[in-house]
Amino acid sequence: MKRVLTIQDISCIGKCSLTVALPILSALGLETAIVPTAVLSTHTQFPHPTFRDLTEDLPPIREHWQELKFKFSAIYTGYLGSARQVDLVLDYFKAFKENGTALIVDPAMADGGKLYAGFDPSFPSDMKRLCAGAEIILPNLSEAALLLDEPYPGEEADPDTVRHLLKGLSEIGARYSIITGVTHADGTFGFSGYDREDDRFFSFGTPKVPMKSHGTGDIFASAFTGLYVRGFSIEEALKAASVYTAGCIRNSSEDPEHVDYAVNFEAELPNLLRLAGIIA
Ligand code: PXL
């Protein structure tokens, strides 16, 4: 069984970060190692979450695993709380990167043009250092603009602006830059990407469901990571992750009991397993 490491916070209620990454990667048949960076009572879309910082646990966990010679097919990082955590995560990249270890960074820090509550305005420049060490980065439009210190282009950024942002992101260093939450010219909603080595743009979308939702970036990044590690090409993994994420949003929009702080990713796990070819 392939082993994936994911490093991000635990929001005890909120259906984001580790509480979606772990079930999604496990459902995809991958051994999932976790490094929790912090424990919050809820995600930061709720007022006044508690926050227990676990920064000082990062080095000893890494050192223990190095002694035990653990290997990982991928390291996938999400929400991180500070510049120091970025440096400590870069130490994980250095310690465990081998031929074939995919380094995937979702620079989860903003939405709607604004940094999440609690972040220092200097944090995007720290997250940029982590992106420079990755092979694949998955920012949304807000995060892409912040990483490049450019103005937020709005939810419906035009294709030229998206391509401009992708080119800028590619100069940070990752081979693949993917912007999520893009509305395409035909009205579909999905991602746009750029492969720096092949100088190639690509994009994909599904019919837009008019519902504002949280945690969908984490669902997308987790499903993408799992499908990619299972052997899907980058583009096929991105497309299937996009179809799954859109299904989660649609499921919630049709569920009269859906919560307003997250989407029904659980109900759509069978669909993810079908997309992965695990079940018929
Ligand atoms: O879904 C991204 C995310 C992850 N972790 C925490 C968050 C958020 C988004 O608000 O607050 C703690």
Could you describe the 3D structure shown?
By secondary structure, the protein is of the alpha/beta class. It has one domain (3-275): Ribokinase (UDP-N-acetylmuramoyl-L-alanine:D-glutamate ligase, 3-Layer(aba) Sandwich), CATH 3.40.1190. 38% of the residues lie in helices and 22% in strands. The protein has helices at 18-27, 58-67, 83-96, 123-132, 141-147, 159-172, 216-229, 234-253, 269-275, and strands at 3-13, 31-42, 51-53, 74-77, 102-105, 110-111, 114-115, 136-137, 176-183, 189-195, 200-206. Helix 8 (234-253) runs antiparallel to helix 9. The chain is globular. The mean pLDDT is 98.
Relevant terms:
single chain, alpha/beta, 38% helix, 280 residues, binds 3-hydroxy-5-(hydroxymethyl)-2-methylisonicotinaldehyde
Layout of strands and helices, then pairs:
Elements: E1 3-13, H1 18-27, E2 31-42, E3 51-53, H2 58-67, E4 74-77, H3 83-96, E5 102-105, E6 110-111, E7 114-115, H4 123-132, E8 136-137, H5 141-147, H6 159-172, E9 176-183, E10 189-195, E11 200-206, H7 216-229, H8 234-253, H9 269-275
Parallel strand pairs: 1-2, 1-4, 4-5, 5-8, 8-9
Antiparallel strand pairs: 2-3, 6-7, 9-10, 10-11
The chain binds 3-hydroxy-5-(hydroxymethyl)-2-methylisonicotinaldehyde (PXL).
